[in-house]
Fold this sequence. Notes:
Strand content: 15-25%
Radius of gyration: 13 Å
Number of domains: 1
Largest sheet: 5 strands, parallel
Amino acid sequence: MRIPVVTGVLPGAADAVLLEDGVFYAGPGHVVRFSSAETAHVAGCACCGGRGKVAEALGDMFLARARGDIVFFARVVVLASPAGQAAVRAALAGDVVAQARYRLAGQF
């Protein structure tokens, strides 16, 4: 079963939190930060050729969960600006690894 990714709710102790850089959060849950900032690089450069920043953050979160480095979570709460939320939607629509592990749910 894929892990639901939601927005518009407050995280609980059993949630993981995907937090956009610049957004303040000091509550419960395992926090992984991401940046939705676009970079202007030459097409095909090494830094842009891999997975996106949000997909990488989701991958790191899943790996930490699988290894037992963090408390098992059943939901990811996104705390982000509208641009950050769009970046999460895009990552879940365009990254096959993220799609295999997570699904959009809630107020997206």
